[in-house]
Predict the structure.
Amino acid sequence: MDLEEAYDKIYRYAYFKMGNRAVAEDITQETFLRFISKYNNIHDYDMRFLYTIARNLCIDEYRRVKPEPLPEEEGEWAVSPGETPEDRLAVREALNKLSSEDREILLLRYVNDESVGTIAKTLKISRFAVYRRIKAAEERLRQGLEVEE
Amino acid sequence: MRKKELKSLLNEAFYAPDPQNKQAFLKNLRPREVSLPSMLVQQLAYIRFSVWLFAAAVLIIAIAGSAFHFEETEKLMTALMPFTAAISVLETHRSNRYGMSEIERVTRFSLRSVIFARMTILGIISVILLGVSAPLIAYSFGEKMIMTALRIIIPYLVAMILGLISERSAFGRKNGYLSLGIASVIAVFNFWIDSFRPEAVQVYIRILETKGVLIAIILLLVTIFEQWKTINNVEAFA
């Protein structure tokens, strides 16, 4: 994975935690700078460490300033090019009903394509717990989508 | 719903607007790609003049001593090589000693790569000194080349190992030039044995004849290990 891809993943992760493009970008850049100051070489980066740093920075930012509501609450969702309005509404409504932990684990697994091992280290839980939580989150999302339909 | 469909739906749902400063940030973040040879050439310029002067002096002594059949040449070489080792150690730790490591740490090269490049250059200088002096002395004085090489390299490796360990120790960091002191002790001891204890020299030569190569290999491996430790812990000593 190249550096740009890693940047995109951390940015997406921070964006869906903080709900603000500028804050997400600041957190992403701070994540990389902190990683370099600790490990000295950006080429040896490990996604687990980057996620952990980003996660802690999000928590710090959350404590400092209450994050802005996610765009869907303001009707300003960023729109993906191939998306139809019906799909968008249904999936986002279903995602809104999930807990932030469920959304986080689905984002890491299905959008950022992270391995179960990386997720386990990032969230500091066992691999078995990751499998279980992914399955439960999927189930809840499916139920949410069925209700929407 | 299949996993593939779920993945596609989630990818669309978690669509984030493009970051605005990604390229500018990554451009500044990426260290300039430098190959090892280029790095070595760059670091050559930072090796102190006194190091080159000392290496040249040792080389001249070896060449002139062999050419003019100066009897003490080998003795001088065994006494001088520990100082070559000490100078290498001091040169490696120079950035820490003069507080330059802080600057090097924030530049586009890591401090480890700088130290590695310097160690490589100083290692090459030592190999050249040994590679030139050992055959010359052996040829000039009718000795076995392997024995001459062993007699020169063993004090060098011992001085290098002790120098690296001492410079990493708390005492060594407080008292600069400890490796130079160690080299002096080894050199004086060598010179004294060579000059005043011929029976000890005989024993030493017998040991070298039977186990010299093995001893040199072990010392070489220990040196590499100590250098690896120094490179690995370089930030801790900065």
Summary: Chain B touches chain A through 26 residues (CB under 8 Å). Chain B has a mean pLDDT of 81. The radius of gyration of chain B is 25 Å. The CA atoms of residues 167 and 174 of chain B lie 9 Å apart.
